Amino acid sequence: MIILDTDFLVNSIKYKVDVISQLNDEYPGVEIGIIDKTIDELRSVNNPNSRAAIHLVKLKNLEVIETDKLNIVDILILDNVSEGDMVATQDQQLKRRLKKRDIKVLTIRQKKYVK
Known about the structure:
By secondary structure, the chain is an alpha/beta fold. It has a single domain, classed as 5'-nuclease (Rossmann fold), CATH 3.40.50.1010. 49% of the residues lie in helices and 17% in strands. It has a five-stranded parallel β-sheet with strand order 3-2-1-4-5. A two-stranded antiparallel sheet has the order 6-7. Helix 1 (6-14) packs across helix 4 (48-59). It starts with a strand and ends with a strand. The model has no long low-confidence stretch (mean pLDDT 95).
């Protein structure tokens, strides 16, 4: 599974990068999802990019991973990721923590593509 972080979704809208298509092309058959609290974070920001990201989640019918929502999204991602999963994020601190656990990290590079 590929888990998308809040900032990754917002930046994909901001930079007009079709991340879902790129992920499907690069990793065919791999499920793409988000943590349920990510939607709460997007709603709380209430800017055009966040609203568009919510629309993208619904439009692409991404799997929503249910959690207890008691922690911040980064902690919830770390709690729900397992070996073989990937996380798409722009957050440097989360990237370091994921790499320590040998979880593959995907980011938007050059405001154009996912790597």
